[in-house]
Amino acid sequence: xxxxxxxxxxxxxxxxxxxxxxxxxxxxxxxxxxxxxxxxxxxxxxxxxxxxxxxxxxxxxxxxxxxxxxxxxxxxxxxxxxxxxxxxxxxxxxxxxxxxxxxxxxxxxxxxxxxxxxxxxxxxxxxxxxxxxxxxxxxxxxxxxxxxxxxxxxxxxxxxxxxxxxxxxxxxxxxxxxxxxxxxxxxxxxxxxxxxxxxxxxxxxxxxxxxxxxxxxxxxxxxxxxxxxxxxxxxxxxxxxxxxxxxxxxxxxxxxxxxxxxxxxxxxxxxxxxxxxxxxxxxxxxxxxxxxxxxxxxxxxxxxxxxxxxxxxxxxxxxxxxxxxxxxxxxxxxxxxxxxxxxxxxxxxx
Length: 350
Known about the structure:
This protein is an alpha/beta fold and 350 residues long. The chain folds into three domains: 10-112, Alpha-Beta Plaits, CATH 3.30.70.100; 123-237, Oxidized Rhodanese, domain 1; 276-344, no CATH class. Helix content is 30%, strand content 19%. The chain is built from twelve helices and 14 strands. The strands form four sheets. It has a five-stranded mixed beta sheet with strand order 4-1-3-2-5, with helices on one face.
């Protein structure tokens, strides 16, 4: 019996990925449907996809599936066949990456979760059988010009910071739950307006539109296929793009360019930049925007403090392994509150 989980060291897996002689295709898909036995469903998919060397991150729950995957191009037809032969996944819309270096994932991870999109909402506050109207790129652009339409970004602040639709309302949120709550509160007196929701691939808008409709919003639409499908349709149909900047993606790439404009800044020096990275100090691992100059200056760390920690011998770093960096980090101010805490630990000169 083959293993249903990867047990190879990630550094070895990353090296194998770099040495591959073939190309990979990054794609994503989701679907809300009733899964009777999520674990069995998960194991069956793992066997099939692992056998053809697929990588990716897949979540399965009683409410459906949410998948981001990297498939060898020479096995793409076989992979699509596994989709078509599955009665639940047959004809599921698949979105292909806009810009793809083939290095989006280095292993296959399929997890069973309570939800495919964590929303923190009570089940009776939305009905996924009643969602907003799906708009194509052309339809979205047409309604975009209507002053009565309100465009809403259903993503987190770090996503909209590097790319968003022109004049969209972008909730200052860290989570999907926060975004929904902010939108509901801000527009509670405008429920009769036309709301146009968008997100990366559409999955969050399905729940958000269902929730808003249940709360009395009367005219809710959503961008079909999200930003990814919008970018493909705009290019194919030669439409003007209303999206500016980069589209944040949840894989090794951390972003794909949709528009040439750089609308965000380096969180360290303030120069124009839109490349996300995780702090090289793994005990911090903060996600932030860093320009190439600061990446060299701080050795890919988010601060001088983390750079100092990361430069210490392993035994010295272990002293701070249990230090709760998260208590002193913040997505907006980053490490400004970290210095006094580190001084207390006698890590830095007082």
